[in-house]
Design brief:
The complex is a heterodimer.
Chain A lengths: L5 H5 L19 H15 L15 H5 L4 E9 L5 E2 L2 E2 H14 L3 E13 L4 H18 L2 E10 L7 E11 L15 E4 L5 H10 L16 H10 L5 E4 L4 H13 L2 E5 L7 H10 L12 E5 L4 H9 L8 E7 L6 E4 L5 E3 L13
Parallel strand pairs in A: 4-5, 9-12
Antiparallel strand pairs in A: 1-6, 2-3, 4-6, 7-10, 7-11, 8-10, 9-11, 12-13
Chain B lengths: L9 H16 L3 H4 L2 E7 H9 L10 E8 L7 H11 L4 E5 L13 H6 L4 E3 L3 H10 L4 E8 L4 H14 L4 E7 L3 H8 L8 E4 L1 H7 L5 H5 L5 E3 L4 H17 L4 E3 L11 H10 E3 L2 E4 L3 E4 L3 E3 L8 H4 L15 H5 L31 H8 L2 H11 L1
Parallel strand pairs in B: 1-2, 1-7, 3-4, 3-5, 5-6, 7-8, 8-9
Antiparallel strand pairs in B: 10-13, 11-12
Classes of the chains: A alpha+beta, B alpha/beta.
């Protein structure tokens, strides 16, 4: 953290006494130290962050105790609105990076948190979001150990952007990869799809639709650990974030040179999400999730994997939705509930609502 | 979803498919060549691909995906006009979502937005009017697009703007009418169509009487169809039944929504606000007489074409595009030389690749497993 050395000595936490973030809070001086202390250090408080050096330092042996490979990932979060039913940008930034580590089989250990704040954002909102990040990290057993704060002119960013980077360790023998799906494998998901995408679209308010749908934002590493214990032969795992289920299936089918066929009637989607998509002309297969993973397991481990999912609170509505087949590499098809078949392709760009 | 799932019932679908298979076997024409049925409306095309309806039909039936996607048939010159209006600094340009990606000769609205134009997606022209109320120092322009389905809502918004005395709202009117277009297709010398699925939502507004000429003069059956997959199957069955009995009538499968006389209030608003243009340019089909509407002189102050200087330059379709032939059912999308190579949903050249309702884009995105199976057989 870019803290002027003289501030390091005191360790008396600073306090912000103005209602909003201004450019002064990004200037590297006392105002910035106060903002960092008041908002971030107060919330994230932990032994590794406390020294406020320019970098966090770890004992390598303590990381190596968790596995034989380091997992390292980063993700930026620019969600609008910042707070939405079921979460906020802070929770999202912590859970998202934890999940990116966990789907590789890693145990998440440490996170960084870099924020870009547009001047004018209220200090109260910043405190709330930092507390939300801290609570999510604590619940997940992960520490936020380093960070950075920038403030930019009005209009140079949209309120608040957060980038989190994560470090984890992958235990020996575990080797997951999107290229490892084999014909005969079974496709599982851990629950209802499309909630996050629908919740965000609803929360933006420009659809004039009131929805009871909440984001599914959650850290999945414990669920994944349970799954991997029950189904050690698990081949591939991805979190179905942007682009939704359809995009992940396409990625796996392409990487593994296989065809994947899913069954519409087996694919769990909330009635409210179906209705939401129906009205807006959207396809729930492409809606984002923040607490859902797509897992490819060998057929003989499918029942055990499903049982492990369902025994966990974040996997109660898990389902086997399809199968990996031989065939044209990279193709994803769906048996429709109506009795037909369709191709489920990658989206070209953003999903655009249809006129009529 | 209540009142929707009932129309997506797999068991009823299987019964209907069996009925269709049995019926088509009794039609002599089907032994000589496939029966070509055109669904006029892009909504039907979407439904057919979304539920995999085409693959459930017997080989003797071929669906031809018609011109009823208003986004697809918008010519490049009009998109250029949109961009020119949208790039004026005082303008907030409002549009339905799927019009964002339609290519102009230089850029789409999506690209113009990226270049800094204030372009916003709305779900209703009333949302655009609300923007005008909230931004009195800006000019809010609504991109009016669509057939008779969306025409009344634009008209009612203009009437509302007038009632409120709002002066910073206008419509860039690209509304088009379905009947002259069907007539243009029927007049085409290379026509191969045996019957039509009529547009459900358009008919909700205009009723079924305007189609009578199709039965009377062109002797083609038409069934106005709903948009759920069972509606589509039942309507196909009804068209086949007419062919089998040698009839050509206008029938209404979508009675739960479409009144025979249409919607009087909607038609009144349309008649009050618009008048027919002498002709309108369609991407893929060329100029069609009386196929578009514009705002009447009485509402000129709400007409973006008169409020702003627009380039109004006609841009010819790319020469190698075969959209017209696909639209008329002369060739299938994948038989076009550009399909999937020069023309893809990422970089659409032709009209039909632009929106997911366009026949080519639908084939590209959802695929036609049946068509592929056929192509393999043909190749062998």
């Amino acid at each position: 953290m870019n803290i002027i050395p003289q501030f390091r000595s005191g360790r008396r936490l600073g306090k912000v006494n103005v209602p909003t973030v201004t450019l002064a809070h990004g200037g590297g001086g006392k105002a910035m130290k106060d903002l960092i202390d008041d908002v971030f250090v107060a919330a994230f408080d932990n032994a590794d962050l406390a020294p406020l050096e320019d970098q966090a330092r770890f004992d390598l042996a303590s990381i190596a105790a968790h596995g034989d490979r380091l997992a390292f990932t980063t993700d930026s979060f620019v969600v609008d609105p910042l707070q939405f039913p079921g979460g906020d940008i802070g929770k999202l930034a912590v859970c998202g990076t934890i999940n990116d580590l966990a789907v590789g089989g890693a145990r998440p250990l440490y996170l960084s948190c870099a924020v870009i704040i547009e001047e004018g954002v209220t200090i109260d909102l910043m405190r709330e979001i930092a507390r939300s990040m801290a609570a999510s990290a604590r619940a997940a057993g992960v520490e936020i150990v380093t960070g950075d704060t920038k403030v930019v002119h009005k209009g140079a960013c949209d309120k608040l952007f957060i980038t989190t980077t994560g470090i984890g360790a992958i235990r020996e023998g575990l080797n997951l990869g999107a290229h490892l799906a084999r014909p005969g494998d079974v496709v599982l998901v851990n629950g209802l799809l499309g909630d996050h995408g629908a919740a965000i679209l609803g929360a933006r308010g420009d659809m004039a639709l009131e929805t009871p749908i909440e984001s599914d934002c959650a850290a999945l590493h414990e669920l994944i650990a349970t799954l991997l214990a029950a189904a050690p032969g698990t081949r591939a795992m991805r979190d179905a974030t942007r682009g939704g289920l359809a995009t992940v299936l396409n990625e796996i089918a392409a990487a593994s040179n296989v065809t994947i066929e899913i069954d519409e009637t087996a694919t769990p989607i909330r009635e409210e999400v179906k209705g939401f998509c129906e009205i807006l002309g959207l396809d729930p297969l492409y809606l984002a999730n923040e607490g859902k993973i797509v897992v490819i397991v060998p057929a003989e481990e499918a029942d055990a994997a499903l049982a492990a999912f369902r025994a966990h609170p974040l996997g109660q509505l898990a389902a086997a939705i399809g199968r990996v087949n031989e065939g044209e590499a990279g193709r994803v098809t769906m048996k429709t509930g109506f009795g037909g078949r369709r191709i489920v392709d990658m989206l070209v760009g953003e999903q655009l609502p249809r006129i009529c | 979803m209540k009142y929707i799932d009932e129309f997506r019932d797999r068991e009823k679908a299987q019964v209907l498919v069996k009925e269709i298979e049995a019926l088509v076997k009794t039609i002599p024409l089907a032994k000589e060549r496939p029966i070509h049925i055109m669904e006029v409306c892009g909504g039907h095309t979407h439904s057919i691909f979304r539920y995999g309806v085409e693959g459930m039909l017997p080989r003797e039936i071929e669906l031809v995906h018609g011109p009823g996607c208003p986004v697809c048939v918008l010519p490049m010159g009009r998109v250029d006009d949109c961009v020119a209006i949208a790039e004026r600094p005082e303008v907030i340009f409002t549009t339905f979502g799927d019009a964002m990606r339609v290519p102009g000769s230089k850029k789409s609205l999506m690209q113009a937005k990226g270049d800094g134009a204030d372009i916003r997606m709305v779900y209703s022209p009333m949302d655009a009017l609300e923007l005008a109320r909230k931004n009195p120092d800006r000019e809010v322009v609504f991109f009016g697009i669509g057939f008779e389905t969306t025409m009344p809502s634009t008209a009612l918004t203009v009437l509302q703007a007038e009632a409120e005395g709002i002066t910073n709202f206008s419509v860039f009117c690209n509304h088009i009418t379905i009947v002259p277009t069907i007539k243009a297709i029927l007049d085409s010398p290379d026509l191969h169509l045996d019957g039509f699925l009529g547009p459900g939502h358009v008919s909700m507004v205009i009723g079924t009487a305007p189609y009578e000429f199709i039965a009377r003069f062109y002797k083609k059956p038409m069934v106005v169809a709903g948009f759920e997959p069972l509606d589509v199957l039942q309507s196909i069955w009804m068209v086949l039944k007419q062919i089998k009995e040698g009839r050509a009538d206008i029938e209404n499968q979508y009675q739960r929504v479409v009144p025979e006389d249409g919607n009087a209030a909607a038609l009144d608003a349309v008649a009050e606000v618009y008048e027919l243009r002498e002709f309108f340019e369609w991407r893929g089909l060329g100029s069609i007489d009386h196929s578009g509407v514009k705002l009447r002189d009485k509402y000129a102050r709400f007409d973006a074409e008169r409020k702003f200087a627009i380039p109004n330059v006609k841009i010819a379709d790319p020469k190698s595009c075969q959209c017209g032939e696909v639209l008329k059912g002369v060739i299938k999308p994948w038989q076009c030389k550009l399909f999937g190579s020069a023309c893809t949903p990422e970089t659409p050249l032709g009209a039909l690749m632009v929106s997911t309702e366009g026949a080519c884009s639908a084939y590209y995105q959802y695929g036609s497993l049946k068509a592929e199976a056929k192509a393999e057989v043909d190749a062998a």
